[in-house]
Design a protein that fits this description.
The chain is mainly α. It has eleven helices and no strands.
Length: 302
C-alpha cells in the first residue's frame, strides 16, 4: 500500500503537468507570435486595389477637412521664412523667379508637380506587387505610415505655401501660365486645403519611390533615375513656390517614421526581405506524426 501511493501520486502529478503544458502551449504560441516579426503574406490584387483606393480617399478627406486656419498658416509661413533667412537657405524666391523666366521649363514643372506625384508612386507599387511580392507589404506599410503621420502634421501645423504669403513676392506659376492640374490654384483651389504645406508629401512619396527603385532595381540606369526623381521633385516644389526647403525636411522626417514603423512590424527593412514569398508547407505530415505517437505508445505497452 505504501509503495503504490507514491506511484499514484507520480501519475497524478504527471497528468497535471501534461495538462498544464497543454494549457500553456496555446498562450505561449500567441505570445511568441506577438513578439516575433510578422511574416509578409502573398499580396492579393483585389485587396490591394481596394486598400489603396480607400486609403487615398481617406487621405484626401482628412487633409481637406483640416481647418484651413488662414491666419495661423500665414503667421507660420512668415516665421518659417525668417528661420530660413537666419540659416542662410532662403533662396526659394530667387529660384522661383529665375525658373519662371523660362516658360517651357516652368510649364513642364507645373505638369510634373500635378501628375507624376501619383503616376510614379502607383507605378512603383505595381512594380513591387508583380516583381517583389515578398517586399511589397513592408514597403507599402512604410508609405502608408508616412502619409498617416503627415496628416497629423497638417492638422497641428497649418502652413501657407510661399506663393500665398503676404508680401512674399512669390509667383504662383500655375496662375501665371494657366496650366492645368494643380489642386492648389485656379479652379481647383476650393477643392483642396490651401494651408497643408508642411510636411511635403511630394518629397515623402518621391523619396520613397527613389529609395525603393535604387535598392531593388537591377539595371544601373534605373537606379540612377531612382535617385534623380526625388532630387528633381525637390527643385520642382521650390521652383513652383509650392513649398519651402524645410517642408521637404518635414517630408523626409515623415518617411523616416514610416520606415521605422515598417521595421518594427516586419523586423527588417523592405529591401532586406526575401523577394518571393515561400509557399506554405502542408500540415498533414505534422498531423500524421502526432497521430502516430499514441500507436507507438500502445505498442510499447504491449
Amino acid at each position: 500500500m505504501n509503495e503504490a501511493a507514491p506511484e499514484a501520486n507520480t501519475k497524478q502529478s504527471g497528468r497535471a503537468h501534461g495538462i498544464g503544458r497543454a494549457v500553456e502551449r496555446p498562450f505561449g504560441h500567441v505570445v511568441s507570435r506577438l513578439r516575433s516579426p510578422r511574416s509578409p503574406r502573398r499580396p492579393r490584387l483585389w485587396f490591394e486595389i481596394l486598400l489603396i483606393a480607400l486609403s487615398y480617399w481617406l487621405y484626401s478627406l482628412v487633409r481637406n477637412a483640416v481647418p484651413e486656419q488662414k491666419a495661423a498658416a500665414l503667421a507660420n509661413a512668415d516665421w518659417l521664412w525668417s528661420v530660413e533667412r537666419f540659416l542662410g537657405i532662403a533662396v526659394e524666391q530667387s529660384v522661383n523667379h529665375a525658373v519662371n523666366s523660362v516658360s517651357w521649363l516652368i510649364v513642364s514643372m507645373n505638369y510634373y508637380y500635378a501628375t507624376l506625384h501619383f503616376i510614379v508612386t502607383i507605378s512603383v507599387l505595381v512594380w513591387l506587387f508583380r516583381r517583389h511580392p515578398g517586399r511589397y507589404a513592408a514597403a507599402r506599410l512604410a508609405l502608408f505610415a508616412t502619409t498617416a503621420v503627415a496628416l497629423v502634421g497638417y492638422y497641428l501645423y497649418p502652413l501657407a505655401p510661399p506663393r500665398l504669403m503676404n508680401g512674399g513676392n512669390f509667383i504662383d506659376t500655375v496662375l501665371v501660365h494657366q496650366t492645368w492640374g494643380s489642386m492648389a490654384s485656379g479652379n481647383f483651389k476650393n477643392m483642396s486645403n490651401q494651408y497643408a504645406a508642411m510636411p511635403s508629401m511630394h518629397i515623402g512619396w518621391s523619396l520613397w519611390c527613389g529609395l525603393t527603385i535604387f535598392a531593388l532595381a537591377s539595371a544601373p540606369w534605373a537606379r540612377v533615375l531612382g535617385l534623380l526623381y526625388p532630387t528633381v521633385t525637390l527643385m520642382v516644389i521650390v521652383s513652383t513656390a509650392n513649398h519651402f526647403w524645410l517642408d521637404a525636411v518635414g517630408g523626409v522626417a515623415c518617411l523616416a517614421f514610416g520606415y521605422a514603423v515598417s521595421y518594427a512590424w516586419y523586423g527588417s527593412l523592405p529591401h532586406r526581405l526575401p523577394k518571393r514569398i515561400a509557399p506554405k508547407t502542408g500540415r498533414r505530415p505534422r498531423l500524421s506524426a502526432l497521430s502516430a505517437q499514441p500507436r507507438e505508445a500502445a505498442a510499447t505497452r504491449h
